[in-house]
Amino acid sequence: MNDFLQQLAAAIGPQYILTAQNDTAPFTLDWRRRYQGAPLAVALPGNTAEVAAIVRLCRAHKIAIVPQGGNTSTCGAATPDASGRQLIVALRRLKTIRRVDTDNNALTVDAGVTLWEAQQAAEAAGRLFPLALASQGTCQIGGNLSTNAGGVAVLRYGTMRELTLGLEVVLPDGRVLDQLSGLRKDTTGLDLKQLFIGAEGQLGLITAATLKLFPLPSAHATAMVGVGDIETAIDWLNRLRHRFGDRLTAFEVIDANCQQVLLRHHPALMPFSAPWLMLIELSDGGDAAELNDALVEWLATQDMLDGVMAQNETERRKLWTLREEISESQRKDGPSIKHDIAVPTSALPQLVRDCAADLERAFPGVRIVAFGHAGDGNLHYNVSFTRPGNVDLFDDEPAVNAIVYDHVYRLGGTLAAEHGVGQLKKDWLVRYKDPLALELMRSIKHALDPDGLMNPGKWL
After folding, report:
1. pLDDT for 331-372, tens place per residue?
2. Residue 210 φ/ψ, nearest 5 degrees
3. What tens digit of pLDDT does each residue of 301-310 get?
4. What family does the database annotate (predicted)?
């Protein structure tokens, strides 16, 4: 191992190879604090050539690689095992904004650029990169790609799959696949970039990406509205789509238990309460007052329990801050069994109704905290208080997951909508995923990574 580490140090500089426990500790614990690893070392390459050199050395010495971006994974996808034989390759030094092409509406960045930095680079050029996540100041573009991140604007702009024009990837043998084209149409064979988006670093190391940009909206209209049930919320979604088309950018829902969690930790942010809150946003070019008036006029014709319109940018940001603080508030509130699930939007009411009933039968007094991106059918569905005082909560996790996932798949849904699978859900994926689909994915994995060195111990 000393010989391997010496070769790594020679390849990228000894100051960028971390081996002391105090230095590696920030890289070894996942965001939810469920997985703790013990790596051989942490490598901090500074460019694509150095990443390729690391991968070639790892292949020669049969050392497994765990790619890591901002270490915001919620499923343990970026955490090594405890063997002390896996190398974390953290890409935080790959920070270059390579090109902003406003004529082609494209942005090319290194994988270590944070989502916020990509957004700012686009905005400085008068454009919008629309991916928006609560962790955007920390999460990195490479990690967003590896999990096919979604966020609050998928309803209008799509996930990272739809937002990506090209990739640069270091393959498991150390070769560099350069597919950073900004083309929107290319029928010359398979779209290889899609192999690596959502693969959680198991097929190669993404080092750069060319991303789609959009016109920067000059107008927003944002409202928070309370309704009596999820059925009414989905009816609102459909009627808003019919009235405003693709100007409907975001449609978030927050249930009553989630509101109580927010009230405990951010009382000043809560405008009111209702069985379900909807956070609605329209965006467009043109005059902001005109768009705002259009939403006000439409809302005046609807039945609601309560509602508030953002009158300026400060009030708009306050409403979005409330939404973005949910995850951190939940963490402060105590442990919960978390689910990042999605079903067709038409099936959300049935999922919410039937799943809650089965959980209550199995665990009387259970608390369900539900919120998320109802516009694309993605619900963050979190379960706690399965027993009095939350004693042994995670002992109940298998039974809770089985109930939730059975309902999700019965309705044509998925157990991983935007956070990935990682270590957390790998066994459940085997239970629910089409066996032929898994066989094909494993065949691709074996073809690209026959030694199994890329992020082992995850779902492939």
Report:
1. 888 889 999 999 999 999 999 999 999 999 999 999 999 999
2. -105, 120
3. 999 999 999 9
4. Belongs to the FAD-binding oxidoreductase/transferase type 4 family.
> Phi/psi class of residue 372: alpha, beta or left (left: φ > 0; alpha: ψ in -120 to 50)?
left
Containing H/E element for 369?
strand 367-373
Tens digit of pLDDT for each residue in 24-46? 999 998 887 888 899 999 999 99
Q: Which CATH number fits domain 2-90: 3.30.70.2750, 3.40.50.150, 1.10.238.10, 3.30.43.10?
A: 3.30.43.10
Q: What is the pTM of this model?
A: 0.92
pLDDT for 1 equals 67
CA 221 to each of CA 199, 314, 317, 412: distance values in angstroms, whole numbers, following the listed order:
36, 12, 12, 33
Strand order of the sheet with strand 205-212? 97-101, 106-110, 205-212, 164-170, 176-179
Crossing angle for the helix pair 326-333 and 313-324, to the nearest 10 degrees: 40
Tokens of 133: 């996540």
